[in-house]
Amino acid sequence: MSHPDPRPLQARAPGSPLAGRLGVPGDKSISHRALMFGALAVGTTEISGLLEGEDVLRTAAAMRALGAEVERVGPGAWRVSGRGVGGLVEPADVLDMGNSGTAARLLLGLLAGHPVFATMTGDASLRKRPMKRVTEPLSATGAAFWTREGGRLPLAIRGAADPLPIDYTLPVASAQVKSACLLAGLCAPGTTRVVEREPTRDHTENMLRHFGATVSVEDTAQGRLVTLEGQPELVAAPVLVPGDPSSAAFPIVSALLVPGSRVVVENIGLNPLRTGLITTLREMGAALRVENERVAGGEPVGDLVAEYTELTGVTVPPGRAPSMIDEYPVLAVAAAAARGVTRMTGLAELRVKESDRLAATFALLAANGVKATIEGDDLIVEGTAGAIPGGGTVETHMDHRIAMSALVMGLAARAPVTADDAAFIDTSFPGFATLMNGLAGTEAMAAP
Ligand code: S3P
């Protein structure tokens, strides 16, 4: 399965170190939320640093279809005039969320609390992904859903006229499910309660507070309890979107793997619920330093300095998964370059990402001569101590992160690595290859 117009891309060792300072595109999670909360707030929300990738542009289009005014005023600078909590209108046409699970699931939460009828679809990847994980808890609001077999898209929703608050314990560690419940709770009177056994990214909680909602977080015997007081007045507030740590992961791992490199990624989000990869790379011995740490727009940010290091294999505990859930494919590339074995445990959620990322990551390694095994939900990678054979073509399965991971491997392998379709990189990291070539000072990534 690929893009209607697949764009293969090949990466080879640049022959010289990667060097330079760079910024990466805005955080995808925060960008989706900024547009959605802006649409629900009274007044005009000014957003800077918005990720202008395809996933976020789908959210922008959906918010327009629901009656908000959404306007681009410059690169990364967007203005959203909201309709107030409960003020969204019925969309006139199908909402197409493209490749984006976050856009689809968070939007379903919003729609559940509004008395509207809506239909939703997505691309071939998104139409395979499980939606029952949100439609089930959201049904408790009084919203009704009609889905394809297995709870997949396309689906139809009739939102609740008088939504009830949800009280839900997440069966899987998912910030999207938590956020969908909280977004529905905005329109319901009373208190919405969500319990998560393992903490997941808390951008929704942070941004709700930033817009004036009352959200509390408490550690309980059952896990982390998040409560939201319903029907707040959300008031427009400026949002500064930091660089996406999940995008920064690609130049950072590249710098660690290409001998002699030193790269600084400026202004990246360092929310502790997102930094599992940094922790893991440091355990592998990586020379990674944070400089200029500060708080911007309610989120911790800083500049990350990455220098070439000979890495050593480690065991990554399952409890760390939510804080680095999108980073396992590129960690597997780092593990392939390391000395010794890396065991990544508790990866069940990887099977339901833009692709089955556990299988796709395994195939990426295998196609390039790296020994790996899957045992249950664990991925075990045998490091090559800096001698990744490469030479393979990687099936990206409509998954931006598999494509970028394959290309990072190509920078550090003995023979070039090809991604069969790099088109989906635009969902989260427009300009990826140009930026990496700038660090390399050569066309290390080019059409084969
Ligand atoms: C996201 C949550 C994660 C992550 C995704 C973005 C979010 O998904 O993989 O890229 O913005 O809430 P899950 O909630 O499915 O773990």
From TrEMBL:
Molecular function terms from GO: 3-phosphoshikimate 1-carboxyvinyltransferase activity
Active site annotation, chain numbering: 326
Residues reported to bind phosphoenolpyruvate: 28, 101, 129, 176, 357, 401
Subcellular location, record wording: Cytoplasm
Pfam families with a match to the protein in the record: EPSP_synthase (PF00275)
EC class (word): transferase
Region of interest (Disordered), ranges: 1-23
Major localisation: cytoplasm
Enolpyruvate transferase domain mapped to chain residues: 14-433
General function of this protein: Catalyzes the transfer of the enolpyruvyl moiety of phosphoenolpyruvate (PEP) to the 5-hydroxyl of shikimate-3-phosphate (S3P) to produce enolpyruvyl shikimate-3-phosphate and inorganic phosphate.
Subunit structure: Monomer.
Entry-linked PANTHER family: AROM/DEHYDROQUINATE SYNTHASE, PENTAFUNCTIONAL AROM POLYPEPTIDE
Protein's UniProt name: 3-phosphoshikimate 1-carboxyvinyltransferase
Native source organism of the sequence: Neoroseomonas terrae
Taxonomic path: Bacteria, Pseudomonadati, Pseudomonadota, Alphaproteobacteria, Acetobacterales
Gene name of the encoded protein: aroA
